[in-house]
Amino acid sequence: MATPSSIHIVCAGGYLQCTTYLIDGPEGAVLVDPGSSSGEEEILKNIARLGRKIEDVKYALLTHCHVDHALGAYRFREMGMKLVSSRYTARVLRDGGREVWYEYPEWVVPTQVDIVANNEDDLPFCGLHILALDTRGHTPGCMSYLVGVEGGTAVFTGDLYGAGGHLSWSGSDGFSVKSTLRSLEKLCRASPDWVFTGHGPVPVPAAEWLSEAVRKGRAGEWVVDGRFHPNDVPDSRLRVVPPQQRR
């Protein structure tokens, strides 16, 4: 199936940066996972290229708290977007520190989330129908967003499971194989038509990807990788305020 015309990739990834999506609605647009800030310029350029103004983007949905998804979220809040997340993610971002960036917690800017979403909350943002789903596993606070689009439903899953058919990084506090499997089973029951992960869209039919992910999980075929990545050092591509410049 062709990708819905209302969904745009405004940053495909990069240094400490996830895939960032823009969803068009009748009354504005919604951003999914603004990222670390290293992709900020690309995101803003692509929003403009699509003919949108930054003030048209009303909300930023956060799937979870990790550096490549949320370190730069506060900068988009300063642009006028309301940040939306699970309660766990909201607490982590408010407190800042190692659960956002394990290797360099001093670089984390404490960030306030504006709207805390619970499991199965309806989020009527920008004229869209958005359903928040608790899909913990990768972290205890992971949330997916099921969005009604032309021709069906799309789900944005963050790093619950990799687009290429593999378990995502498993080093978070509270990471759980059992929770990940339950969350994937929940998404199977939701029967989305498209899946957009935190690092790219799923290249095969959603039902096929989800059912194979569940099969591998039930069979114990997932490879758990909890290694840290100390070589991802802070550099000038990050636009967040460095710790030495904070008051």
Q: Would you mind describing this structure in some detail?
A:
The structure is a single chain. The protein has a single domain (7-98, 106-221), classed as Metallo-beta-lactamase, Chain A. The protein contains six helices and twelve strands. It has helices at 40-49, 67-70, 73-78, 87-95, 177-190, 206-218, and strands at residues 7-11, 20-25, 28-32, 57-61, 82-85, 115-116, 122-123, 130-134, 143-149, 152-158, 194-197, 200-201. Helix 5 (177-190) runs antiparallel to helix 6.
State the helical fraction: 10-25%
CATH architecture: 4-Layer Sandwich
Strands, total number:
12
Distance between the first and last residues' Cα: 51 Å
Radius of gyration: 17 Å
Mean pLDDT: 96
- Beta-strand content: 15-25%
Helix/strand order:
EEEHEHHEHEEEEEHEEH
Largest sheet: 6 strands, mixed
Low-confidence stretches: none
Structural class designation: alpha/beta
Q: State the CATH class.
A: Alpha Beta
Shape: globular
CATH topology: Metallo-beta-lactamase, Chain A
Overall structural domain count: 1
Strand arrangement, major sheet: 1-2-3-4-5-6
Number of helical segments with 4 or more residues? 6
Give the full name of the CATH homologous superfamily: Ribonuclease Z/Hydroxyacylglutathione hydrolase-like
Summarize the topology.
Layout: E1 7-11, E2 20-25, E3 28-32, H1 40-49, E4 57-61, H2 67-70, H3 73-78, E5 82-85, H4 87-95, E6 115-116, E7 122-123, E8 130-134, E9 143-149, E10 152-158, H5 177-190, E11 194-197, E12 200-201, H6 206-218
Parallel strand pairs: 3-4, 4-5, 5-6, 10-11
Antiparallel strand pairs: 1-2, 2-3, 7-8, 8-9, 9-10, 11-12
Helix pairs in contact: 5-6
